[in-house]
Design goal:
- With 2010 residues, the chain is of the alpha/beta class.
- It folds into 10 domains: 1-120, no CATH class; 138-204, no CATH class; 227-341; 354-435; 450-587; 634-818 and 1003-1030; 1087-1262, Elongation Factor Tu (Ef-tu), domain 3 (Beta Barrel); 1293-1438 and 1531-1618, P-loop containing nucleotide triphosphate hydrolases (Rossmann fold), CATH 3.40.50; and more.
- It has 73 helices and 28 strands.
- The strands form 7 sheets. It has a 7-stranded antiparallel beta sheet. Strands 12-13-9-14-15-8-16 form a 7-stranded parallel beta sheet, sandwiched between helices.
- Helix 1 (2-12) packs across helix 3 (47-70) and helix 32 crosses helix 35.
- The protein is elongated.
- The termini are far apart.
Length: 2010
């Protein structure tokens, strides 16, 4: 007791402000600390606040425990304890009279006290103490209540309230409601509580804010006032109970009440009160309270309730509410508490309740039955049951609600409620079971619905088509939802069954259409009208999009189940097609529009449109056609987009998403077609909706969703195609599908810019880059799987895959998106894979790999490491005897000798090892060990060899040989290791095949997978062996002979920096270089962007010789030789652009192009260039514009772009032209920053005008950029032709006999055949250049043609670094062909015609060869059209007969469609007239329906035709490419112009041109010569004549820097002795050739044997029409009406008179059909005048009989008779570009039998060489002057030829010092031989600037005069350039060298001259420059004599000085 006393004293001594039962103290008298008191603050309380609060609570609990302990003092009765007992009671009274929380906590602590006591005392003692304790509390409370009664009694009733009792009264009443023993003591309540409780509520009802125990206890009280107050107060508390409150305030009284309603001791009258209270309590319970408190009570209320359902009392509604609440809030706790009672039992108990039955049958309501509430438990009940067990209980519910309660015994109200609830329950059940996806439960439910309820519930929908949206009631909507859900569930069930089948090949239920009755009945109710039911049915079937039938291969895995599954799907599809879609076809268009406006219907219809089953797709498409009124698919989709943009795109995106998620193959082809059409409708350049429509933000979101879904689906296609290819689908079909996919992906990616522009223009926010990032993010996610298609086998697909990959890499890089590392690594592995290191096996060609590499490097911003770094073997020059070898060369003899012994040793060792290897090869472990032993031994041997080497210096050649051996060993070792791994892989594969791969497949994951051998699928398997592996199994084959045939290795592969050292006097050999992929790509397809940027930055209106921004100091002259490609390129690249600028200036001056309107349809940024697109008409382009890829176009805001420099303008390049029907989409590239760029917005209108094509320029620039990768690079930059090789007499004679050539030709042919590198052949006019070329071709093809005249041998070339086996032609190597080129089409055609006649091989065998002419047909001679690539490809592809028949057939379909459409219109007109009624109307309607079906059928066929056309286009492209490859494979010789040889076709085809022949090589600039050499050329034969016309160069400034110099001439200047001269002409009559030979070829050009007799013609009997004659025409020239050209009418008159005389006297002797007469002139205007005058006199037919042309254009051609009109005739001035001796040479050497020159001798004599010609004609008496016209009017017989005196002017040329002067109007008396040569004396002018310069000769810049001249114009140039006159003939005659000699043109070698020059015998004597200046003498080169048939003494070289020979005698 002492301890208790101490505690009591301690408590009573505490500060009075301290609360004993709560944390309040001191100033904090109203704090809230317990959770129950601060519920609203708990959510916002932070951790620190919570910790502080909890600390105070803990301190308070400690104090409370002390109080409870001290209260034990009450157990003591003695006087000693009385003071302390009294102190505790007083303290309690004080504490409980000031704090409601202390009151609550004190009474809640009773249980704690009991627990504490029970731990120390017996139960009896505890009970006794508690009785005393409770009595104390009751006494205190009773006293307080009595005091309240006294207080309130004294007050009037209106003043009685709780506040009037004072604070003590309030706390007393509050304590009474919290004291459990008091409120359960009915006597105490009646005596002390009820009266004051009633009195305090006289004025205002008492409200208690907490769940005090009294509130809950009074819920079950029999006292009406207490109970009413409790219900009211309990209800008004809005918050739920807390756990503490439930345990302290509710649970004790609820359990006590439950004991009163047990079925055993049921107080029936109390039952309603009980459930009313339970309902209220339940409404305040949370899920946690129910689970952790309510369900843990000693009394199980749930099971107790089951006993009450069958009791007929007034508790049903409250119980129903409780069930609803329990099932909604805590269903798991409900069923846990129910234990073994199942859902079916619960439902049955409730629905069979007598109370419910009575209520349902009550028809006369006296009070509200509120049946909806009484059945409100049904939905929570269904939701509470697990879906797997849901069918049995719900089946009972449905039977009761939908059938039992629909009987007549029940009231209408009850039936309606039960019907609604039943339908809702059925719908909810379907939704819940749907979560199971499939299985027996789903099947069971669908069967229940179909068999038991469908017929009943569908009656609700009768006539629904006649209703409107607003008139459909709730039940009808429920039935519609049920139909939709049931159909969807059935589809889902079938989907699930497929998944299970694929995994396990078994299912646990029968596969069928479980809800077949639902499908039948629902779809048969679909009728035209309001589409509610159609919407539901369509929405329910949308899941069919994700289903496809099992393939035949899959069926084999589980035949019975898969067939049943396929049949079930067939049933569904048949109902959809026949029952639903066909019924909907009867709807009117407005009804279909209404249907499509329903979001679910639209989504479902679009899903059906994408369906992979053709019938479903076509039937749905027919509906859409009916809706839109369109006849084809694209137009239908366009209508949908325009009318329902958001709906359509959203639905399409949804369907695409379904396809992407399902990963099935069936709908993918449809996806490609429809999405292509949608993209076309959106973006098409002609009618794309986005190009004209204005979108809002919502539209943008739909567009973005569509774009994202498109790429998501494409990603799936890229990912799944390889697995699909293994499922047994037809491989041709799969191939076509892959092609369509790749085409679509490429097309879709191209539309990015259109979508970006649309979003950018409508969103108004975000930069172009941000929008680009957003849009391109979707293709980026697809990129990784797209790159996997690089492994495809199909060449078309490979090309497309490479193109798309590169395009995406570039685009993504531009917007700042980086592909992920995995994708980057994959592409890098593809690029760097080789046969030896095949990381990823592909069929990519080297060029394609290089293209990928370039794109990836640009994307990642770094260079990739080459997988195989090969040395560059470039040519070097000869090592001279006695000189040390240059660094980098190899002493081949030393290398070979050193390696022979080693090779022999290795051979013996290999044989030894192989023998042992064969012995143990049968044992796998032993074989592996042996291989490892061999490899270890080889490594050790290599290491020992390396260690044994001494560090002493050794010769470079020995080091090289040694290094070669070491590398070879290492390489062999690695190769053997690779081979071992390869063999093991093969063995494993074989073992798998023997075991039967795929036979043990356990699940459907691999079900139906193709387990065929590798190499048969659409993609290259990573495990496949390379096609080239069989050839290269062992590298030892390179060093030792094997039985199997191997490719011949012609040259050892070793490092060198040039040519291998040549054997003395042997032929030149060029070492082929093994190039990396990147180098190959740079050579074949270099990057041209730098050129484009330069050109496109130019200002079109800039005036100047140099391009905008360029100055003269930026250019440098062409050197004779360069040391490296870089310096070469730095010289030529600026000159190339300089020439390009002048070409543009010329085009600007002469431009007659028509301006055209450009409407900007799209704008985007690509490769830092702006790209815009527009449309033009195909007809306009063909007739007027003539735009092509590569054209430069002037864009401007002005309507006449070339006339308004002030308008914003810029240059653009056409980079792409896409033809579509009658329109062409043109894509222009331009540089940013131009004045026009800001105006190029979408829909902007500008104007364009074609300037010129830069395609030839691009090819020249590309060749220059790739030069460093040429095998002939060093020879080109150094201008080093191959050395002449001395042919022995036997070889020369053999050449002459085989090819019937002369000696010079034979030597040239021999050198061309033997030498690699460059062989130069100079061919003067008529010297047999073409014959020589044909002979060379025959020699080169001799080996190929040796077996058969038509056989073509394909040569496998060494693969380039990184090339894969099989990466090209079938044999794995590129086809080597012979390429023959010339600058002009005419020259090429001439060669083709000769080659078509066949060639002769070295062995004399005459063979026909296959020649292919590359080029545009419209520019090619009609005689060679049959061998053009286009023609040959067309023949190979077959005629157009089948195509024409198909076109006619398709045309019939369109005609039928038009006809049936007209019929339908007529039938509708008849129907709408109102005149047809009754049976006739019915028949009319049937007729309309039949016509519509026919129209739909035709529409389907039209769509198919269009799809086939698209596929046919793709197939045609592929077939064409294959045909091109086949044509090239079969060809022997390819012929093209130099520019044409750069055609893109050669980049995509697998071909090499190891040998190139260039004709007219001196007539092309050096850059053009480079173009054909990029295809691996190591032998180039250049044939040309620098003495004839030079290349055409527009820029006089470029010409000043020697840009017009040809490669031929540059090489000739460096190595004149290496040029082969064809020294015999076979064209001209000797009288014609004598002057050109002496003047232009220093007399070295001889006549062929018997040329005089061969060219003798009947008209030669007249002096007037002699073989050669100059007619002195005294007329004057005049300026042409347009331009700067000249005309001479007098010469035209003479030409016509000459023609008249010739035809009059010798017309019968002329072959006019062969155009025997040619009339040429240097001036284009004169040419036009000649044509006009001749046509006026002779009619247009004269143009077919006489060939009119310019001199320039006639080069390379010939005619029997040439009339040469010189034009120039004036009293003063020069003779213009007539002074160009090369133009003069061409003009004088075109005739075969007669050349008649028309000119004014006085004017022409102002030019040095024309003066020589005039004097020569006079001296040879071939000069006619005076009244020439009068003479020509006389018969030719009036001027007979005099008898010859036998004088031969060629044998003994004598000098004539003075010309004979004859009277005017006479002809020179040809008493002597007309071929007599006169060498007029020529005065040697002083070397001053006044010396006459000859137009066209290329002088060194330092030799030029200050006056600039333009480059030599081409035939179309009309400009006349004034030149200085020739010196007077009377001055200082004969002052030069040898008196009377014709001055040599080679005193100083011009760049276009040959090394043929003549000087006197005195070497010190000076010769004459071409311009008359003196120079140092040179050696004389004389022609060699014609050898006899057998001649043992070698003939003198034509390039060695000739000895003087005695004058031959006749």
């Amino acid at each position: 007791m002492a301890e208790l006393v101490a505690k009591v004293q301690e408590l009573t001594n505490l500060d009075s402000s301290v609360h004993w039962f709560c944390p309040c103290a001191n100033d904090d008298q109203h704090g809230r600390y317990f959770d129950d008191d601060c519920i609203d603050l708990l959510a916002t309380e932070d951790e620190s606040e919570k910790a502080a609060r909890q600390a105070k609570i803990k301190s308070s609990e400690t104090l409370r425990t002390e109080v409870l302990t001290a209260l034990r003092i009450l157990a003591y009765d003695g006087t000693e304890a009385a003071p302390y007992t009294g102190a505790m009671k007083a303290g309690l009274k004080a504490q409980l009279a000031r704090c409601e929380i202390c009151v609550r906590e004190f009474h809640r602590a009773r249980g704690q006290m009991q627990t504490m006591l029970e731990a120390d005392y017996t139960e009896e003692d505890v009970n006794n103490f508690l009785e005393r304790y409770d009595a104390m509390n009751n006494a205190r409370i009773s006293a307080g209540l009595d005091h309240i009664t006294e207080c309130l009694t004294e007050l009037p009733a209106e003043k009685r309230d709780i506040s009037s009792t004072g604070e003590a009264g309030i706390f007393t009443l509050f304590e009474a409601l919290n004291c459990g023993p008091f409120i359960t003591n009915e006597n105490e309540l009646m005596r002390h509580f009820d009266k004051p409780f009633k009195m305090v509520q006289s004025k205002k009802k008492l409200k208690l804010p907490t769940y005090a125990p009294g509130v809950a206890a009074f819920l079950f009280s029999h006292n009406a006032e207490r109970q009413a107050w409790a219900f009211r107060n309990f209800t008004n508390i809005k918050r739920p109970l807390t756990g503490t409150e439930f345990e302290y305030s509710v649970k004790p009284y609820l359990q006590a009440a439950a004991g009163r309603v047990s079925i055993i001791s049921l107080e029936l009258n109390f039952l309603s009160t009980f459930w009313r209270a339970v309902r209220l309590i339940t409404s305040k319970l949370t899920k946690e309270l129910i689970a952790s408190h309510f369900c843990t009570m000693d009394t199980n209320i749930y099971k107790l309730s089951m006993e009450h359902w069958q009791v007929d009392a007034g508790h049903f509604a409250d119980m129903a509410f409780c069930y609803q609440r329990w099932l909604e809030v805590a269903p798991e706790a409900f069923w846990t508490a129910m234990g073994g009672i199942n859902g079916q039992h619960v439902a049955e108990n409730i629905l069979n309740s007598p109370v419910l039955q009575r209520l349902m049958q009550t028809k006369n309501e006296t009070e509200s039955l509120d049946l909806e509430q009484k059945l409100g438990w049904v939905m929570p009940f269904i939701r509470s049951i697990k879906p797997g067990t849901l069918v049995p209980p719900t089946r009972l519910v449905f039977r009761m609600l939908l059938h039992k309660f629909q009987e007549d015994v029940y009231s209408g109200y009850a039936r309606t409620v039960a019907w609604k609830v039943g339908l809702a329950a059925l719908l909810e059940t379907i939704k819940l079971v749907k979560t199971l996806k499939g299985g027996p439960v789903v099947v069971h439910l669908l069967e229940v619905i179909a068999k038991e309820h469908t017929s009943v519930i569908l009656q609700e929908l009768e006539g629904i088509e006649k209703k409107g949206e607003m008139s459909i009631d709730e039940t009808e909507q429920l039935v519609l939802d049920i139909v939709e859900a049931a159909l969807a569930l059935d589809v889902q069930s079938l989907t699930h069954s497929r998944v299970v089948l694929e995994k396990t090949q078994a299912v646990d239920h029968e596969i069928s259409v479980s809800g077949l009755d639902i499908w039948k009945m629902a779809m048969r109710l679909i009728k035209p009208g309001y589409p509610a039911l159609a919407t539901a049915a369509i929405a329910g079937t949308s899941g069919l999009l994700s289903l496809e039938k099992f393939s035949e291969r899959q069926i084999k895995a589980a035949p019975k189940l898969t067939k049943a599954w396929n049949m079930a799907l067939d049933h569904m599809l048949r109902h959809v097609h026949l029952e639903m879609l066909e019924r909907l076809e009867a709807s009117l268009p407005e009804q279909l529009v209404e249907l499509y406006q329903e979001q679910k219907a639209a989504k479902g219809l679009v899903a059906l449109l994408f369906n992979g089953e053709a019938e479903i797709h076509q039937a749905t498409l027919s509906l859409f056609k009916g809706l839109s009124g369109e006849d084809n698919r694209r137009d239908t989709l366009m209508h949908l987009l325009k009318a329902f943009f958001d709906t359509t795109l959203t639905c399409v995106a949804s369907a695409q998403g379904t396809i992407a998620r399902s990963g099935i193959f069936a709908p993918c082809s449809t996806f490609l077609k429809i999405t292509t059409d949608v993209l076309s409708c959106l973006c098409d350049s002609q009618d794309g909706y986005l190009r004209s429509a204005t979108l809002d933000v919502g539209n943008n979101q739909s567009l973005e969703r569509f774009w994202a879904a498109t790429w998501s689906t494409l990603d799936m296609l890229f990912r799944q195609t390889e697995p699909w290819s293994q499922m047994g689908y037809d491989k041709i079909m799969m191939q076509d599908f892959c092609r369509a996919t790749m085409d679509f992906a490429d097309y879709a990616f191209d539309q990015y810019s259109i979508l970006a522009n649309t979003l950018l223009s409508t969103s108004g926010s975000g930069s172009a880059k941000e929008v680009g990032k957003k849009l391109l993010g979707h293709p980026t996610r697809t990129f990784g799987n797209a790159t996997k298609w690089l492994r495809l086998r199909d060449e078309y697909l490979i090309a497309k895959a490479v193109g798309l990959t590169c395009k995406m890499l570039v685009r993504l890089q531009e917007v700042g998106i980086r592909i992920d590392e995995k994708a980057s690594k994959y592409i890098e592995d593809v690029v760097t894979s080789t046969d030896k290191n095949a990381k990823i096996k592909t069929k990519l060609t080297a060029n394609q790999k290089a293209e990928l590499q370039r794109a990836l490097e640009k994307h990642v911003g770094r260079e990739l490491a080459d997988s195989d770094t090969s040395g560059r073997n470039t040519p070097v020059f000869d090592v001279l005897p006695g000189k040390a070898a240059r660094p980098g060369t190899i002493d081949v003899d030393a290398w070979q000798s050193k390696s022979e012994a080693e090779k022999a040793r290795r051979q013996t060792e290999r044989e030894h090892n192989d023998a042992y290897g064969d012995l143990i090869s049968g044992v796998s472990k032993g074989a592996e060990a042996w291989k490892r032993h061999q490899q270890t031994q080889q490594i050790q041997q290599i290491q020992q060899t390396q260690q044994s080497r001494k560090p002493a210096a050794m010769p470079a050649t020995q080091k090289a040989a040694q290094k070669h051996q070491e590398d070879t060993k290492s390489f062999l070792l690695k190769r053997k290791q690779d081979k071992a791994a390869s063999d093991k892989s093969k063995a494993d594969a074989l073992a798998r095949q023997k075991l039967g791969a795929g036979s043990g497949v356990a699940g459907l994951g691999d079900m139906g997978k193709d387990h065929a051998l590798k190499g048969q699928n659409v993609m290259v398997s990573s495990g496949e062996e390379s096609e080239g592996d069989d050839e290269d199994d062992d590298l030892d084959d390179l060093f030792k002979p094997k039985n199997k045939e191997r490719r011949k290795i012609e040259r050892p592969e070793f490092e060198t920096s040039g040519l291998r050292p040549e054997v003395k006097k042997g032929p030149t050999r060029i070492q082929r270089t093994t190039r990396s992929l990147k180098d190959m790509r740079a050579r074949l397809a270099p990057d041209l962007q730098s050129l484009h940027r330069v050109i496109l930055k130019w200002d079109y209106f800039h005036d100047g010789d140099y391009p905008p921004g360029a100055e003269e100091h930026m250019f440098q002259g062409v050197k004779n030789s360069y040391l490296d490609p870089t310096s070469y390129q730095s010289t030529f690249e600026p000159l190339l652009t300089l020439e390009a600028w002048q070409g543009m200036v010329k085009s600007r001056e002469e431009n007659s192009a028509k301006p055209y309107e450009i409407k900007v349809l799209s704008r985007s940024n690509v490769d830092n260039l702006i790209e815009i697109s527009s449309m033009i008409s195909s007809n306009d382009n063909q007739r007027e514009l003539s735009l092509h890829d590569g054209d430069v176009v002037l864009l401007s805001r002005a309507k006449r772009p070339n006339e308004d420099a002030s308008a914003p303008h810029c240059l653009a390049r056409i980079c792409k032209m896409k033809r579509s029907k009658a329109q062409i989409e043109v894509v222009y590239q331009l540089v940013p920053g131009s004045s026009l760029a800001p105006a190029l917005a979408v829909q902007a209108v500008i104007w364009g005008m074609k300037v010129q094509s830069i395609t030839p320029l691009e090819r020249e620039f590309g060749a220059l950029q790739g030069l460093q990768y040429y095998d002939l690079c060093q020879q080109i930059i150094r201008a080093a032709p191959s050395k002449r090789i001395a042919a022995n007499e036997k070889q020369i004679v053999n050449m002459q006999e085989v090819w019937k050539v002369n000696r010079a030709q034979g030597e040239a042919v021999h050198a061309a055949l033997e030498n690699e590198g460059f062989s130069l052949i100079q061919g003067p006019p008529g010297s047999g250049k073409t014959k020589t070329i044909v002979a060379i071709v025959g020699g080169l093809l001799s080996q190929t043609l040796s077996g058969s005249s038509s056989a073509v041998t394909k040569i496998n070339v060494p693969r380039m670094a990184g090339a894969q086996a099989g990466g090209g032609s079938a044999e794995g190597g590129a086809t080597r062909k012979l390429l023959v080129c010339a600058p002009s089409n005419a020259a090429v055609d001439e060669l083709v015609m000769r080659l078509k006649d066949g060639v002769t091989t070295k062995h004399g065998k005459r063979c026909q060869i296959k020649v292919v002419r590359i080029g545009r047909s419209d520019a090619i001679n009609s005689q060679v059209l049959d061998v053009t690539m286009d023609e040959l490809v067309a023949k190979r592809l077959g005629g157009n007969g089948d195509k024409e028949a198909l076109r006619i057939k398709n045309g019939e379909i369109f005609k039928q469609h038009e006809s049936i459409s007209a019929t339908i219109r007529e039938l509708y007109d008849k129907q709408n007239s109102g005149e047809v009624k009754g049976t006739e109307l019915t028949n009319l309607m049937s007729e309309i329906a039949a016509a519509k079906r026919r129209k739909n059928e035709l529409g389907v066929r039209i769509d198919n035709v269009k799809d086939q056309e698209q596929n046919a286009g793709r197939e045609a492209e592929l077939s064409r490419k294959r045909a091109q490859q086949a044509v090239l494979d079969e060809a022997h010789v390819i012929c093209a112009t130099l520019s044409g040889s750069g055609h893109d076709m050669f980049q995509s085809l697998n071909i090499e041109f190891e040998t190139v022949i260039i004709d007219e090589a001196a007539q092309c600039v050096e850059m053009s010569s480079l173009i054909p050499l990029k295809y691996g050329c190591v032998k180039c034969v250049m044939v040309g004549d620098p003495k004839q016309l030079p290349p055409t160069v527009f820029s006089k400034e470029a010409a000043k820097f020697q840009y017009e110099q040809s490669l031929f001439v540059r090489m000739q200047n460096n190595s004149p002795a290496e040029v082969h001269l064809l020294d015999t002409q076979y064209r001209m009559h000797p009288d014609i050739s004598v002057f050109p030979s002496r003047t232009f070829y220093d007399g070295l050009l001889k006549d062929g044997d018997g040329m005089a007799s061969l060219r003798q013609k009947p008209w030669h009997k007249s002096q007037l029409l002699a073989p050669y004659r100059f007619f002195d025409v005294q007329g004057q020239h005049s300026a042409a009406p347009k331009g700067h050209s000249l005309v001479n009418a007098a010469e035209v008159d003479i030409a016509m008179a000459l023609y008249d005389r010739l035809m009059a006297d010798f017309g019968d002797d002329l072959d006019t059909n062969g155009r025997a007469v040619g009339i040429i002139t240097p001036y284009k205007s004169q040419l036009r005048l000649l044509k006009d005058r001749f046509s006026q006199r002779y009619g247009q037919g004269i143009l077919d009989q006489v060939e009119f042309n310019t001199t320039d254009a006639f080069q390379g051609r010939e005619s029997e008779i040439i009339i040469f009109s010189c034009v120039r005739a004036s009293l003063g001035g020069g003779i213009g570009f007539l002074n160009d001796i090369r133009r003069m040479n061409v003009g004088l050497t075109r005739a075969k039998s007669s050349l008649w020159v028309l000119g004014n001798s006085t004017s022409l004599s102002r030019g040095q060489y024309w003066r020589l010609l005039v004097e020569d004609a006079k001296a040879r008496q071939l000069y006619t002057t005076g009244n020439v016209m009068g003479m020509l009017r006389q018969p030719s017989t009036a001027f007979p030829v005099a008898a010859s005196n036998g004088y031969d002017s060629r044998a003994n040329p004598r000098a004539i010092t003075q010309a004979e002067h004859r009277p005017p109007g006479t002809i020179s008396n040809a008493t002597a031989d007309s071929r007599k040569v006169v060498k007029p004396t020529v005065a040697t002018p002083k070397p001053t600037e006044d010396a006459d310069k000859m137009e066209g000769i290329r002088y060194r810049f330092e030799d030029r005069v200050s006056k600039k001249r333009p480059a030599s114009p081409e035939s179309g140039n009309d400009d006349d350039v004034e030149m200085k006159d020739a010196p007077d003939t009377t001055e200082d005659s004969g002052a030069s060298g040898t008196k009377g000699d014709v001055p040599s043109l080679d005193g100083v070698r011009s760049r276009d001259e040959t090394p043929t020059s003549v000087s006197g015998t005195d070497e010190k004597a000076s010769s004459i420059r071409a311009n008359g200046t003196a120079t140092k003498p040179r050696a004389v080169v004389a022609p060699s004599a014609v050898p006899q048939a057998v001649r043992k003494k070698p003939a003198a070289s034509p390039f060695m000085p000739a000895k003087k020979k005695a004058k031959p005698t006749r």
